[in-house]
Each structure stands twice: as C-alpha cells, then as structure tokens.
Amino acid sequence: MWTAVKLFLIAFFSLIILALAAGGAVFVYYAKDAPALTLDKLESKPSTKVYDSSEKVVATLGAEQRNLVKTDNIPVMLVNAVTSIEDHRFFNTRGIDPIRIAGAFVNNLKGGSLNGGSTLDMQLIKLSFFSTDESDQTLSVKIQEAWMALKLDQKWTKEQIFTAYVNKVNMANGYYGMGTASQAYYGKDLTQLSIAQLALLAGMPQAPNTYNPYTNPTSAKWRRDMVIRAMRRYDKITAEEEKKALATPIDDGLQPLKQSVTIPSYADNFLKQAIAQAKTLAGDDILTEGAKIYTTLDTTAQQNLYNIVNTGNYITYPDDTMQVASTVTDVKTGAVIAQIGGRNQPSNVTFGFNQAVQTDRDWGSTMKPIVDYGPAFENNIYTSTNNYVSDSPTTYPNGTPLKNWDNTYFGSMTVKSALALSRNIPAVKTLINVGLDNSSKFVNGLGITLDPLEYSNAISSNSKNGGASSEKMAAAYAAFSNGGIYTKPYYVSKVVFPDGRTVEYKPVRSRAMQASTAYIMTNILQSVLTLPLSESVGSYAAVPGLAAAGKTGTSNYTDSEMDQITEKYGSLPGMVSPDENFVGYTPQYSMAVWTGYSNRMTPIYGTSTQIATKVFSSMMTQLTPDPSSVATWTMPEGVSQEGTALVKTDSSGQTISQSSANGS
C-alpha cells in the first residue's frame, strides 16, 4: 500500500515538474520573438495642433486626439477606480500576476479567451506593441506581453506605468487618454471629476465603443456601476459614496459631443499649404511628434472668404461649377492670412486640390504692372504718368499679329490711361522698350518665374516653365503697396515640439523696386477702380472710402478655340474668356482672385466677368469695416506732383529724363 502511494506521488510530482518544464519551454519559445522593449513607444505623443495668428487651435491632426496628463495631475480616486476594475494587485506585482494568468489559462482551456489575465503593465504593452484585434488574443502574444511587462517593471516605476496607461487608452469618439476624455466629455480636468465620472472613464478602455456614454448610455452605466462596486469591494470608497455614485445619472456633467479630429473645411486649402511649409521648416515628423504649428491664419478672414466664395449671400454665381481661387496676404508682414482653392469642394476630402497655388491658368492683363510698366518706371523708360505711348497697329517683334481686345486703337495716350484701360498694344511696346532681361529681373524680384520670358508675357502669364498663381500674384502686388519691399509668402510663424524645441520661420524680404516706382504704380492702379463701368469692371472692386488699387485681367481664346465655343454655345455677348482675374491691394492687404471653370473651354461671359472684382470688394469690406481708419499711401522721396502727373525726380528734385530703349 505504501509503495503504491509513493509511486503515485512520484508520478504526480513528476507530471507537475514536466508540466512546469513544458510550460517554461513554451514561455521561452514564444518570449524570444517578443518585440524589443523601446520605451519611447510606451509614451504617447500629444496630437499635433495647428494654431491661428491669435494662437487659438483651429485644427488637430492625426487619427488620435490626445492631451497628455502628468502623474501629479492624476487624482488618487482615478487610480483607485482603474486598479479596482482592471488590476487590483497592480502595486504589489512585478509586471505579471500569476494568479490572474492562471485563471485566464484555465478559462482558455474551457474554450474561453485569454482576456482577464492581463495586468495594467501588460495592457500598456498590448496598446503600445500589439493590438486589441482577435488575431492578437493568442497564447503566444499573451506570453510576449508578460515577458515584456516583466522587463518594463524593472525599468519604470508603477507611477510611470500607470501614467502611460492613462494617456494611452482609447476613450471612444476619436479621443485617446483619460485626460483628453475628461476635457472633451466634461470640460474639466481629471482632478475636478466626481467618483461617478471617474468610474465611467475608468471602465471605458475595455470596450470604448460599447461603453460610450453618448451612443450606448445603458451599457455605459452598467460598466460604470461595475467599477463603482469594485471600488467598494476593495475599500476604496465608503458605502455612502458608493450609494451616491450609483444614483448619479450616466449623463451627469456630459457636454455635447464635439468632433474630435478637426480639420475645418473652410480652412482646408490654407492648412494644406501651412502643413507643407511646416514640414519643410521642421521636418516630416511634426505630424507624429505632437508638435504645435503656429500659422498666420486669420480665422475670421478665412471664414469670410469661404462664405463669400461658397454662399450666395454676397455674390450671385452663374452655376455651382464656376470656380474661384484666392489668396489674401498682409502687406506689411507678407504673411498669407486667408486662402481658398475652389468653390463647392467635397466636404469629405481633406487637403484637396488647391487652385490658389497652381500656375496653370492665365492671369492675363494683371501681368502688365509687373512685366511691363513696373520695370519701365524702375528703369526710367517712363518717368511720368503723362508720358505717351502709341496705341496703333503693330505686331510682335517676330511678326505675329497683335491686337487689343476690342480690335480698336486709341492712338497716342498717356501711360496711365494705357495701363488703366488695359490696352494690349501699348503694353507690348512698353515691354519691347524695357527689354526682356530687365523685365525678367523685375519679375523674378517679385517671386514669379516666367522662363523664358517672352514678349507675349506682356499680357499673359503663360510660360513654358513657371507661371502665376493667386498666391504669387498677391505677394507680388503687395510689394507695390509696401514701398517696393517684396516678402515671400508664408503660412507658418513657428513650430514648437513637445520637448520645448522651437523652430521659427524668418520671413524672406528684399527690395524689389524703388519706393518711387511702387508709389507711381499704385497711383496708376488706383485709377482702375474709378473707371466708368462702360470702360472697365474694375470699379466693382472699389469699396467706398477705402484707399485701394488693382488691375483686372482677362485671358483669351485662340481663334480656333473661339470657333469651338461658338459652335457649342452660339454667339455670346461681350467679352468671352477662359479666365477672369483681379489683383488688388489696400495699405493693409493684398488679394488676388482667379475665376474660371476647371474645363477652360467653358467660357466666362456677361455678368460673370464681374465676379473676380466683386469677390475682392466683398472681402475688403469684411476686412475693413471702417475704411476711414485706413490711411492712404504716403508719397516717398523721388516722386513729385506736376499738374495731373506724378513724375520721378532725382536727389535735387529735378525730373529724371527718360532713358532710351534697352532692347532685349
């Protein structure tokens, strides 16, 4: 009998030893394939946030919105709530809890899952290195989590591990981290929440969507009450506190749910450019490092521009497919304050197509101030607004026919009238006298590339290499307003990383022309806004009482294209063109507006030719509610008034003589 007992015990303990050995072998087999424990993966990064010029958040980037909390800002009651429901021996174990793991293993043998055996340490490992998918609910993954949790517990304190867990967990509705959820759901810090509210947050990570109080309040209450009872079971709260917490409505203190990941459609095009600049400035990792991107966006101006373009409250558009692209810059700083790349853009597309920065459309006669007349005054080809130029039949230097838009000729006329009335022949003659090299230098100084610059660019931005966009044109014209100083347009002022490292953008400025040239050009372009409507749509850009200047621009169809237009649409009244533009400025803002259709063979005609100027005046009205508060431009040295003309003068006050033609 005794011998049989001895044999049984030997066999029993041998089986136990074999089981332990086998279990150890399995543990080692799976643990060796565990990912390397890189501690930085355990630490959550805050969401990248984008700020406007007033340093208010206008967008959060990335799939997860997360605001981090520090250990000192985590209330003890939240610690009690989380540990009571998730791992009540958390502070007494070293990464794994053998009792819980054994229980989970037995459950798995019965056909259940391995859930329930994970400590908070292991849950943090899962959230950082694995997933909550069913494919990761396996024995091998569980062993790897346990092995990594053992190593983690040797490197971090329990406080560090708990803080990382609180900041890592999914809290539904696009929010990550309990601190984030506290602000989003209750508008308060964690330290200000009640026991019932903390219990709700503590219970959500197990199944965030299931226990979402906004979409599943019944399930959320069931889970919250489970947490409260667990807290009472482990003596973390009193019976009275338990009773009060259980009686609290599940929606107590909940705020209306806001969108978690915000990329507002009204600023989509601007933000696309801002993020591109921020990446260039501070590196591609800004979107994953929780950086703060401070932009030049004027949110009110951006919303106004969006509404002007996308509603019928300001302007009547001919249809829903006509497009508008526009950029507004601050004249003094050169910063882009608002931008829009199209009308009726898809609301479900983020960072979509932005026509405002494309150079594939023709800006027509808006090129005349920067290709022809600006360099003419800069190089003293013209020294008075009353210098004369002939509007008479001629050709391009290569013999190509040249004509005005109305196929008429005005004969000898002042430079001021020739530009204000947008006569093509005087513009080309002016460029011929300036010379292509001088003009190209002037244009390049305004941030525009036309390579190679040709005589056709006297009235067009079309170029083999380069071209113009609303961004480029707004910046170029801003130099006229700013005394000849050009600033490269920019969208970002600085990028701040979570560790405090700051990368600032330093605006790139240069003198593009003499102050006298800028002032004279402004004087001429002011007259565009005072012309009778019978002569120009430029007066639609005027805002009563506001000092403003600008230039209309119309592109042209070729003769063969016009034949196609006529065949499709019949004989259309008045000007017919693929692009209608306006570039204008005040002493404070510069704005370029392009209008047209994505298919350039859809023509603009009739009252649609007025839209670009009306967008400008509508926007300037919003930007400058009190026009009388804006002082007009001050005449600089090197300019004097002689009768009705402005003339360039030398240091002694004498009128500068005109230079001879410079050729090409």
TrEMBL record:
Residues 327-620 form the Penicillin-binding protein transpeptidase domain. Residues 56-231 form the Glycosyl transferase family domain. It catalyses: Preferential cleavage: (Ac)2-L-Lys-D-Ala-|-D-Ala. Also transpeptidation of peptidyl-alanyl moieties that are N-acyl substituents of D-alanine; [GlcNAc-(1->4)-Mur2Ac(oyl-L-Ala-gamma-D-Glu-L-Lys-D-Ala-D-Ala)](n)-di-trans,octa-cis-undecaprenyl diphosphate + beta-D-GlcNAc-(1->4)-Mur2Ac(oyl-L-Ala-gamma-D-Glu-L-Lys-D-Ala-D-Ala)-di-trans,octa-cis-undecaprenyl diphosphate = [GlcNAc-(1->4)-Mur2Ac(oyl-L-Ala-gamma-D-Glu-L-Lys-D-Ala-D-Ala)](n+1)-di-trans,octa-cis-undecaprenyl diphosphate + di-trans,octa-cis-undecaprenyl diphosphate + H(+). GO terms for cellular component: outer membrane-bounded periplasmic space. GO terms for biological process: cell wall organization; peptidoglycan biosynthetic process; proteolysis; regulation of cell shape. InterPro entries: Beta-lactam/transpept-like, Glyco_trans_51, Glycosyltr_51/Transpeptidase, Lysozyme-like_dom_sf, PBP_transglycosylase, PCN-bd_Tpept. In the N-terminal section; belongs to the glycosyltransferase 51 family. This is Multimodular transpeptidase-transglycosylase / Penicillin-binding protein 1A/1B (PBP1).
